[in-house]
Every structure is written in C-alpha cells, then in structure tokens.
Amino acid sequence: MSHTHQKVLDDIRRSIESQLEERDIEVDGEFIAFVVHLLIRDVRLGLVKTDLSKPSTCHVRTFVENVVSWYLDDSDTTMANLRLSWIMKTGHGISLAYVREQYEKDYQQQLKRIIDDILQYPETCSKVQLDQLFSKMQVFIVATNHLGCPKNHVLLKLTAQALHSVIGRSDLQNYVLKKKYHRQEYLKRLADTVAGILIFNNDGPDGDRENVRNIIEDLQMAQANTNAAFDAALERLRELSSRCQTAISEQLQFDCKETTLYYGVPFAQLDRINQFTITFNMLMRCLVALQSSYEHTTYLLSVETGRYDCVVAKINASLAMRTSIDSELIFPHFVYLAKVWANLNHYFNHIVELNKLRERVEAQITSGMVQRSKDTIAEIQELSKSHSEMRKCSFNQRMDTLKKTQTDGNFCSLAQADIKEFCALAMAVTNGLLLPAKVVRKLCMNVDIQFGFQDETYARIGELWFERFITALRQSIFNNANLVLLFQLDHILIAKELQPVPAEPPKTKDFTGQTEMVVTNDLKPANWINVTWNAWDYHRETIHLAEIRKRQTCDTQSTITYGKRNAQNQTYNVRHHLR
Fold first, then answer.
1. Per the UniProt entry, what are the Gene Ontology biological process annotations, in alphabetical order (predicted)?
2. I need a labelling partner for 53 at 20 to 30 A (CA). Which of 20, 105, 223, 555 fits?
3. Number of structural domains the chain divides into
C-alpha cells in the first residue's frame, strides 16, 4: 500500500476485522480496506480532523466502533453505498465475454469425464462396448448442447434416432480406429450435427416441448421478466428519491438576487434525509448500468434470433420436394444451427447473471431502510413546524464552511463524473445536499464538465463566482464519502493506495563481464562487413535497394510462353547429356 500513513490504516483495518470475526462474521479483507481508505476522508464520519501521524487513540477507537456498528446495521445508508459500489466493481457477471468464458470453462470441466470415457475405448471393441459408446455419445450430445436433462429417456431416444441418421455401426467401428485427437475433433463435429438435427426436428408448434428444451421460449420469458423487474425497481426508486428531494427543498429557499439561503431546520437534519437520497440514486445508477448491459445483450439476441430463423428456413427450403439429399449439402446447415443455438444459450446465461447481480444490489436497500427514510422525513417535517421563522445565511458563509478542509480530489477529476443530474450550486452552498437540476451548462472551456442547475439564475451565479463555486463544489464532493461513491470517483481517490508499492531498483548492481581482447595487426576482414560509421553509406544502400525493388516484376515465364512448340510433350537434352 502507498498511503502516507499506511501503518495506521492497517492497524485500523485489523481492529475492524478482529471485532467482526469475534462475532463469527465472515470478512472480506479487501472490502474492509476499501471501507477504511474511503471513510477516513469523510468530514462527517472519518478522521479528516485527526492528525494520522500522531492519531488520537480515542478518535481511532470511536472510528473503529462506528464502522463495526455500520457494518452490522442493515439499514445504514453509508455501508449500503459501499456495498453497492463493491458489488459493481467485483461483479464480473455484467460482462458478456466474462460470462461466456466462465460458463464454457465450467461445462468443459463437467464434460471432461464423459469425454475421457468416450475416448478410452480400444480399437478392438466388442458389440457391447460399441453399444456403451453409442449411449455415452447420446449423453454427451445432450449435455454439451444444453438440449435438456441428460437423464430424460425420451430425449435420449430422440437423440439416438438423430444419431443413427448420421453415423451407423460400421462408421462407429471406424471411429474407434482413429487417433485420440482425431476422435475428439470428430466427436465435437458429430455432436453439433446431431444437435442441429434434433433442434430442427423440434422447432415449430409440433415440437416436443416437454422433453426437448426450447431456448427461444426460455429467452422470451426471461426477457419479459427482466424488463418488468428493471422497470418496477427503477420506478420505485424514482418515487423514493423524489420524496426525499421534495422534503429537502421544502426546507430551503434560495434568493439568487441577494445571494442568501433561507433554511427551516439545521443542515445536519437535512443531511439525514440526504443520505437516503444518495443511497436511492446510487442503487438507481447501478440498475441503469445493469440495464444498459442487458439491452446490449438483447440487441445481440435479436440478431442471433434472426440467424436462427434464417437457417431453419434454409433447411426447410433444401428439404422441400426432395426424397433424399446429399449429407454434404445439408449437414453444414445443421452444424451452423447448433452454433447459433450455443450463442443463444450464452445470451440466456448472461441474462441470468445480470438478474443475479440485480437481486444482489436490490437486497442492499432493505424495507427497514425505506421505513427509516419515511420516519426521518416525518420527524423533520414536525421539527420544522416548531420554527416560526426561517433562518438565513449568505452563500459565501456556506461556501467557506469546508474551506479549511484538505482533500486529495482534483477539480479535473469531475470530468469523469456524471454530476449534471443534480444542481451543482445547491451542492456547493449546502455542502452536498442533492436537489434536481433542470438546466445543464458547461462553465469551463478547458475541461469537459457539464454542470446541472435549477434554472438560469443559478447558472449565472456559478459563472460569476466560478472560482469560489468550484472550490466549494470540490470540497463538498470529495469530503463526502457517499457523494464520492455516487459519482464513482472513489477509484480516483484511493486506487493508487490500494496497489502494492513497487519495489525500488537497487542503487548499485553487480555486473560480471570481460573486456574484449584487442588484436593488433590482424589481417582478417571484419566480422560485420555491412557495418560502417558513415551515415551516407546507409542512404546509398537504401536507394540502391529501392531501385532494385522498382525493377522487380511479377510476370511468369513458362516453356510454352517462351515459344517452344509442343513444349508439353517434348524432351530437350541438357548439357551433360551431350557429352
């Protein structure tokens, strides 16, 4: 690790892990390190005001106890944000290529045993052994192409019929005479051909839906359920977030002409509601990322479904009005159909993994947390009724609140964050309260950052007070761990710290070598005859090679084009025959 006070942070991490292990809780050390490195920068929850070179034991103990209590509390918003961020970082199921690779790896490990059983049969197989080989081939074809349950005897019977149409007993006897690597390659081609026949025979309304899997219907059902789940979750989160933002905006009034802020309750109370706003929006952004990956998969799925329909139509056209057809003409279509089927299975597996990730992130927002947000809003609304008049303060006073707080965040890093959804001026003045934005402006021409504002007057103040506004906004975001997680800026703050310190190269290095012996009066030519110290020699050689290259021709000269008559049946004696 490369943090300046890494030893202190390691001690804090070990203290947290030991307290959690005492409660028989499984702990991910990398996640705890991620939590510690991020929370110590939080001005409200961390150790920003503590000198880590000489840390106070009391402050460190309080921080450790707080982290442990947040970890055990399912309704804590900060820990929910940390878990959401960690799930999205470590959830490789969002990548289609990763899911494809992992599923293929798992299936190959599961099929390795049956492949070895098929390849072990000797060249001198008896009738009983050939029957066993034939039965194992059926299981292998069903399992490797995901056609259904390999224990289903009806499915195995249909597979045997398709296999009989491709390979007979004499062909099976010839199969065991091949080399092992040839047998394995032939087995894969045979499995694709038979699977394509079985898929084609069961396509359409007359197919055996009870025994043979129909991937098209499975995908249609999966898409319908996934779309409904995403839509319902996002609609619910938008409602919860809107309720929290409305409760905050009711307690605030911005007078942009007088640059004065009026508030009904203390900002600490409003920050309690703001924590729920951040968490709901954090989950919403996680779901949007998963939905984006899902929509990409559905597009690829629609393309692959078109290919499936196309190849089925091609096979139907090839078989129409024919009593027999050459296997070399039709079998490649069955192999291609099996490949398309395999791609559809990969897309189905990816949708399954995306739904697993969706359920994991949704589980972080418990019903207790939702109820706490409602209770907090009701409590603050009652508290505001006890205050007859709203208090006021200037924008400058609020912006200077975090002026003395140090942060590692850089203003240019905000270009990587999507902050245009919330009012930037409100965040800068209120030190991180989220209010919806209706206007988007780009205030800085040097950095591509789009800021959101509630209206044009807010944007005008951000323009006129650009330096103060940017400083306050940067302090508000980077000193709030929840906002850092929401805008996905955590990797900028702590990525370098979570990497191991590179080993410094040694200042001195032993070198064993021998000085070349210089031979005087040596009349032998130099070993490197093309080496010269004159750079113009290289230029001349380059020009010479270029001229040779320009004269090169691609024409060919044969005995017939040379002009020899009847050259294809004439014999000409070479010189050594004339002696």
1. cell projection organization; regulation of cilium beat frequency
2. 20
3. 4
**In the structure encoding, which two tokens stand for residue 193, read together?**
């051909």
CA distance 116 to 180: 10
**C-alpha 429: how far from chain center:** 36
Q: Partners of 451 in the beta sheet? A: 441
Shared domain for 264 and 321, answered yes or no, is yes
Contact (Cβ atoms closer than 8 angstroms) between residue 442 and residue 419:
no
What is the CB-side half-sphere exposure of residue 293 using CA atoms within 13 A? 24
* 8 A C-beta contact, residue 158 and residue 207: no
In a shared domain, residues 368 and 490: no
SS3 content of the chain, % helix, strand, coil (to 5): 60, 5, 35
Task: Judge contact between 424 and 453, C-beta under 8 A.
Answer: yes
- Distance between CA 194 and CA 145 in Å, rounded? 10
Looking at the fold, whether 339 and 243 belong to one and the same domain comes out as yes
The burial class, CB within 10 Å (0-12 / 13-18 / 19+), for 11 is middle
Distance of alpha carbon 489 from alpha carbon 411, whole angstroms: 11
Between CA 357 and CA 363 the distance in angstroms is 10
Q: Which of 375, 515, 480 is nearest to 38 (CA)?
A: 480
Helices (H) and strands (E) in the chain, counts: 20, 5
Q: DSSP for 358-401?
A: HHHHHTTS-HHHHHHHHHHHHHHHHHHHT-SS-EEEEHHHHHTT
In tens, the pLDDT along 7-48 reads 888 888 889 989 988 888 888 888 998 888 888 888 888 777
Q: Are residues 446 and 312 in the same domain?
A: no
363 and 243, same domain (yes or no): yes
Which of 340, 359, 386 is the C-terminal boundary of a domain? Answer: 386
Same domain, 246 and 339: yes
Question: What are the Cα distances from residue 308, in Å, to 240, 455, 486, 498?
Answer: 43, 52, 42, 47
Residue 267 sits in the same domain as residue 374: yes
On whether the CB atoms of residues 515 and 55 are closer than 8 A, the answer is no
pLDDT digits (tens, 9 = 90+) for 421-479: 899 888 989 988 999 998 888 877 777 788 889 888 888 888 888 888 888 888 888 88
Pairing of β 451-453 and β 260-263: unpaired
- Domain span holding position 334: 223-386
Contact 239, 277 (CB under 8 A): no
Measured CA to CA, the distance from residue 190 to residue 273 in angstroms comes to: 63
